[in-house]
Design goal:
Two copies of one chain form a homodimer. Chain A is α/β, with parallel strands linked by helices. Chain A has helices spanning 7-17, 30-36, 54-64, 67-70, 81-93, 107-115, 127-141, 152-168, 183-195, 211-218, 242-249, 258-272, 278-288, 290-293; strands at 26-27, 39-44, 74-77, 97-102, 119-123, 144-145, 174-178, 200-206, 250-256, 300-305. Chain A has two domains: 7-53 and 151-314, Rossmann fold (3-Layer(aba) Sandwich), CATH 3.40.50; 55-145, Rossmann fold, CATH 3.40.50.1100. In chain A, the strands form two sheets. Chain A has a six-stranded mixed β-sheet, with helices on both faces. A four-stranded parallel β-sheet of chain A has the order 5-4-3-6, sandwiched between helices. The first copy, chain A, is globular, with a radius of gyration of 18 Å. The interface between A and B is medium-sized, with 23 and 22 residues.
């Protein structure tokens, strides 16, 4: 199983992004531990630059570009955390960023990207329109496309999350991350199992977008169609590069429904006092699930709190 | 100026509560620093046990009781963080706690106190009823009254916040805390200026409950009447013990209106990803105010984020 990213690439990425990315803290919370039945170590990527792990991958990809290529800028299509991450990474390198965004994306996300100095290009809200708009920008400007997950430099950047976590916490038995396109999960897998092949890697996925679980069970990649979940960072399918890594390294994908995810999110806000977004809460809901609690030999588990960006004026909490 | 609490008492309190209280982390946030025009060090008492600094004082007071006195239990009247703090401190020592609560207190607060194993006694929602209900419990059970702030052991416990902060951050020029009854502010004053007499201490207060500011300006204690603010932890008047300490040590009280404190709270949630309650946001709003920004010689300022308990189903955020 030869993969396009190895531990050495992740170590290089860590050195490369160190001057720009935060070494995020690891927090613990007794109230969560009690409910999970084991010790949890929360890797706080909600405290990363732009409020999500996505900055690691975008930063590594931007810094890897040769000077003459970088000078022509970067482009992506995204309305999520990758857009902000790429915008900031480009600004830090002093190069242009072009972000293709579907019409109707939340104003707060558009504003954040503009605040980082990027140019926003509107497109119709479908995949074909996004791709053709990005291709047009590439043609026009010579900018390099930096996709949100299916790219070796992006995967290597996300993997630095696990490199840090393993340096911060001794004797972890397992790590769990949310999975959408699989950039974080595949990078974390390579890093964690590269350092300790006995370390167990798990993924957490919304029941309404469960392509990773179905793929792992089928042994072949199944694409996500018609996702239905409030975890808006986890709607996409696994990628050409991320799928084989996940297939080879991930022990199990735990799915949780939106109700469980909202309850987990509220618990983290109330007890750990940390603002996390629905996509991050999926991993917490997974470790609190009966399915995960029944697994043996997992005394100490790292949980990647992947991000903390959401609209505070539209929260899913209601009185019990 | 002889005060009933000195640095030695605070150092003793720190040793006493160390096995039970969290040594809370100090966080920084570039987005806040930019807006404040200086470096801020956020002392995260929202991550303290029970979600507020109040656990320090309650724990110290409970642990200071002689065994035979402690065995008869403790009592207080409070619907806020002190109630939970005392309930947990009593449970940790294995003694009864009786909490007098006004009818109509939020169900979530009542439940939290019950969860810590305390007994809740209902009373009418006025000061006289609260005091007489607590006195009845004392008479009936022999329990010791532990008031929320005007008590040397409580003040000493709250002062451990500053002891920790000064050990965690070098070269602070100033510290700011919210002020309600003044337990936190007076304890922090004694600790901070006991360690470094040149350290400048500030208080932050809601404009709708500004008795501390008026007291400091008048040079005599003025009681709070008819407070009007959403910062529900800061409604009370300064105490007999806390007022002279504050008078002797606090340079200035900064008042902020509720709109500014909600904006500051939202900023901390959005950018620092920390859940803080309105009473804690008052200190953040104060350091962001024009009045505070104009002060000279304050490069590095510690800000006590006093607590993080609030009802997530009733948040004051609305779309801008």
């Amino acid at each position: 199983m030869s993969h396009p990213v190895d531990l050495a690439a992740i170590r290089s990425a860590a050195e490369r992004i160190a001057p720009y990315a935060h070494r995020t803290p690891v927090m613990t919370c007794e109230a969560l531990d009690r409910r999970a039945g084991r010790q949890l170590f929360l890797k706080c990527e909600n405290l990363q630059k732009v409020g999500a792990f996505k900055f690691r991958g975008a930063c590594n990809a931007v810094l890897r570009l040769a000077d003459d290529v970088a000078a022509r800028g970067v482009v992506t299509h995204s309305s999520g955390n990758h857009a902000q991450a790429l915008a900031l990474a480009a600004r830090l390198r002093g190069i242009p960023a072009h972000i293709v965004m579907p019409r109707g994306a939340p104003a707060v996300k558009r504003r954040a990207v503009l605040d980082y100095g990027a140019r926003v290009i509107d497109c119709e809200p479908n995949q074909a329109a996004r791709e053709s708009a990005a291709a047009a920008v590439q043609q026009e400007t010579g900018a390099t496309l930096i996709p949100p997950y299916d790219h070796p430099d992006v995967i290597a950047g996300q993997g630095t999350t696990a490199l840090e976590l393993l340096a911060q916490v001794d004797d972890l038995d397992g790590i769990i991350t949310p999975v959408g396109g699989g950039g974080l999960l595949s990078g974390v897998s390579i890093a964690a199992r590269g350092i300790d092949p006995s370390l167990r890697v798990f993924a957490a996925e919304p029941a309404g977008a469960d392509d990773a679980r179905r793929s792992l069970e089928a042994g072949e990649r199944i694409l996500q169609t018609a996702p239905d979940t409030i975890a808006d960072g986890l709607l996409t399918s696994l990628g050409d590069l991320t799928w084989p890594i996940i297939r080879d390294h991930v022990e199990r994908v735990i799915t949780v429904d939106d109700e469980a995810l909202v309850a987990a999110m509220r618990l983290v806000w109330e007890r750990a006092k940390l603002v996390i977004e629905p996509s991050a809460a999926v991993a917490v809901a997974a470790v609190l699930s009966a399915e995960f609690r029944e697994l043996q030999g997992l005394e100490r588990v790292g949980v990647v709190l992947s991000g903390g960006n959401l609209d505070l004026a539209r929260l899913p909490f209601a009185d019990p």
